Sequence to fold (253 residues):
Amino acid sequence: MSAEERQREIVRTARRTGAVDVNDLAAELGVARETVRRDLRALEDHGLVRRTHGGAYPVESAGFETTLAFRTTMHVPEKRRIASAAADLLGDAETVFVDEGFTPQLIAEALPRDRPLTVVTASLATAGALAKAEGFTVLLLGGRVRSGTLATVDHWTTKMLAGFVVDLAYIGANGISRDHGLTTPDPAVSEVKAQAIRAARRTVFAGVHTKFGAVSFCRFAPVGALEAIVTGSQLPASEAHRYALMGPQVIRV
Fold:
């Protein structure tokens, strides 16, 4: 097996399983661990994986995106902590936009139920979770439903969203970096996120620590457009400080 074939197999495995381990790959591919490490370095240089201690996980891109079902299985305790802390930032907002994705869905479920609230969302899962919440008005944006994420996109979605002014937008992303801002693989999703930020008085990004430094295909906002970033404590404090210098409050939980 050539290096190119081996690296293609590593990417396929990472995308199928969500992560790969150096020791396991060395055994499966019949090569030395250092060979696998070199492959992972090469794949990271090409933006296909992000290395971790002892392995790597796939980077979402124009050609690969995880499904909502898969996201419900990864980093769940961290996502729940993030969601709770993000919901605490609601303040006196009466209208909120909740983005597609599992962490935003958890934020929606963590929103306080002690006062009326209007929730605008493109996510079928979030709309379904909140539909019976007493005192909540849920507005589901129309459009083409993406099968992997169960969220609406395209001009129907952005046109409807452009007619609103919301107090607070909870935004997710496939990657966030200091150089490239917030990114996502699909241009149609990028347009919805960008329109939500334009419609919002305040914007909060919520995402697990693995999102940081990752760059996807479509850029929809700079870091400076955010009021706050909520992430896990696994993001180093020094790195959180670098993001805070760009404008947003950074909360690690």
